[in-house]
User: What shape does this take?
Amino acid sequence: MASVRSYLSSSVAVTSGNPFGPRKRSRNVKLSSSKKRREENAAEQRLFVAGLSFEDRDAYNALNAEPSVQPQEDNQDNDYEDMYSLPPGEEAFFLSHAGGEMELCQDLVATRRKRDDFRIRHDRLLRARAEWQAQLPTLVDAYLAWKVSISGSSDVPAAGADYNQQQPDADVQQLESQGQGPQESGGEGQTEGLGPVWEWEVTTVEFFVLSKQTFKHVPPARYANATLVSNGFLGSSPQKPTVAISLKVLDAYRQLHRACPRLSVQAYVKSLCYIHRVPLKKHLVKQFSDAYDIYLDIQYHIDKLVDSALGRDTPDWRMHNACAPCLYKLEHEPTLKYSLLATMDGNQSLKLVDDAFRNGRVRADGQEARTDIWLLPSEVDRFKDEAGKANNKASAIATDVTASMEVAAIANDTDRAPDVANAEVRYDHDDDIAWLGLSDREDDGNLEASVDVCVERWRNAGPEARKKMFALFAKTGIFVCLCRHGQLLILCDMIRSGELMKYPLAIINKLMEVYGPDILVGYDIACAFAKTLARSSLGPEARRLRMAGVVPAFHGHGHNRGCQVNWHPLYMNGVGKEDFEGCERCFSESNALAAGTRLSSAFHRQQAIEEFFRFWGEDKHHDSGTFIYNNYRQALNIIADDSRALAALSTELRVSTTDLEEYLKQEREYIHNRKNESPEVARKLDYLAALRRLEEASSKLTAATVELRKVEGNIAQYATKEVARVRGNRTRAANRYFATDDDCRAYEQELQIAVRWLPASDEYQEACQLLTLREYQRSLDELERLVVQRLFELTKAGMSGTGYKLREKISKALKARAEAIRKALKRYNDKAAKLNPPRPQLTWSEVVDMVNLADFDLLRETRDDIRKQPWAQYPNRRATNLHFNIKRAREEIERLNVEIRRLLTSMYDEHVDYHLAVQQASVSAPYLAHELRERWQYRNSIHARIAARLHQTSQLPRFSGTLTTGLRIGRPATQNDGIPLPFWAHGFVGMETEEDGGFDGEADDTEPLFEGINSERDANVYVDFIDNLGRREPS
Assistant: This one.
């Protein structure tokens, strides 16, 4: 039953009378009947007006507001009619019909209600989009014709030819009828066989010219914008364009945005306004943005025509041909252990603010992504519950953890994946555990603890920060997958969440579906993801296709040693020298899009991302020759230098390569069998810690009691506040003592300890040793945490794009971090000295040189037999790393030799495809043939550069590959017959060499380690300066 709301009035009292005398209540009016009273008052007014003569009505109008000529309510219609109805006795005023008075009167008094217009801007956007799409094919033809006209080519029809034989559309007729567009010209405006020529004036925007131009619209051209495009301009609206932007201006913005993703549409329009000396207005940005969207539609439509002509319109063609060195497999080529090396990761820079947090109404324009680089949300959400299902399966497969880890395919010598190591540090479980695919019911405690340590080292903010962020953003970033050369394979949006496991699962599913078996994927937390993958619905298929995982090289140094010996690329067969850090390099560039996309529409954000990866792919293809050259030279240098160092070290240590391989197996076996601190021992240590707190609380209580007795013995000499303070201290000390005593009793009851431990008892002394060890390990954990943060900040200081203020802030943080490391080092040395036997003391130089965090894990091992093991000794560990580094370098050369032939074959086959496509299109589609010819010429110029780099690679000492082409699997052997070689393939004639200034033999795509530091020597001086900050003792 609804309650009556006492704070709302249902009626109002109307009183009348003398305001200075007693008031008289006249009536009580209900508010619910207000509409009825308004209607009654309106009826009385109509009766009053109807009884007035024309003269009286004019006087009435002079005293009162004239009724609305566009009535909005039914009762206002009656007012309008009564005002102009005939007064009583004058009904025959217009009966004569002389002079048309009757018709005039009927026109005046006729009630014409204006039709309600329920259209909103959303409808206008959808209609404009539909109109643009309807004329897009015509605009594409006009654009291709315009490109021919500006190229001066004579092998195709001239621009302005009959590219559309349909009749003029309605927009031209509307422009003429409304006097805003094309107008018929006289005399020479007639064109023989085509009918009248229409002319209209448009404001045109070029780089340095802002003017009004008159365009001639010649039938049978159908659209006004087609006429503009054929003259090098594009209107900002589908019909009746009054502003046209030069196609060259639009293309310039596209290329500038390619080179500088930070350049927004608003900044570009602002610069044009400065050039043209006009003030910036919001609608100018909107006009340019609309025209740019259609310009990109034209470009992508042309791309589809080109792809169709080249035979590239088959399903998943882009993914199968994303990277020639990785995917252009040839017949009879050597078999590699992994057919594809890829890396995937999420990035939260490209967020999109939710429409709920913006002003105004959402305006959907129906535009969607133009390319197939995206995984649809429906494809991703298939795996949204897989992490939870994986937890439910934990008990069912806990006895076969090793088999599950085979899905992650650790590629060691035995091709088996031993359990990931146990970890000493445990972290509280929170709701982020679901993200890892782990649960509190996890049976494999070693694996869970190890995963906790690995992931904690790579998430600085934690789940709370993500929760605060997700409410604001509809899309929180992107999750990408790249090949080892940096080419994009597939990506998806992260929607209202962090890096959930459904995103990598969807990526893995797509990779297996398209590329098949033997794929190795790098992922920051591959050690945790392997469990989720094994227990998901993809587990059986992943085992069958031998899907493998690896932790990226730099990220791997932040994982614990148990994870490194199984997941780090250095210890995995078949990976070569790939570091799997391509996503980080990509994100360092794509982050520049964030400023311009965070508050854009969903479509414009997707459009910017698509454009970025389109040009990113072109740049990576252009750099593929340099990539091969640099990696080949690096691998050769590693083999030469490290082989000499390993030979000298092996002679000194009297070890062989077989011994070094065995050291790694022994370390894996030890870590696999290592046990964590048992719960019973942990509770005993907690009990000992409680006893120590009780001892301290007892001492404080005794001191407080003595002080209280002293004050109470001579209370007259103390102030009231002082007495109250002493009594309060004694009360707090007593409360703390009794609370700690209760804790001790609870531990004693839980551990079934009949007699409380005393400092002289054996149990107490044994527990003290274990507690000292725990304190030592925790001080080591703190020291390691500070070193990890220092590594991160040094890396960020040298990252491209880091501004001056941020670098200054990082430098201050490094200085503070150096002081913190020095203090943590002192605490560590104090704890290490208390161990039995004492652990070696660490110096500042040793700590700052611990780039490989595995050294910290060795410090955690306190058993004497571990330090005496050969694999744990530093010289042997250094020799082992040299051995595996050489092994990986030889694998890198093997893979590069395969990639060289693939790349050369792909370049030649593309030349053949263009040659055949141009021949076929020259007759049926001459404009398209001209476009194909231009692209063919540009690609050949790029391939000449790549061929030069490959030739330079072949000149390296100890080069073992061949510069020959092969036959792609599935390509007809006779397809290339009779096709002339490209100019860059004729003995590499015309290539740029060092003498020509083409390149200097050094890597030309690398960036300085630190901003403003251009040499390795300067970089080392800077790092030494940072290291020395903590050596100075405080004054």
User: Anything to note?
Assistant: The longest helix spans residues 874-924. The radius of gyration is 40 Å.
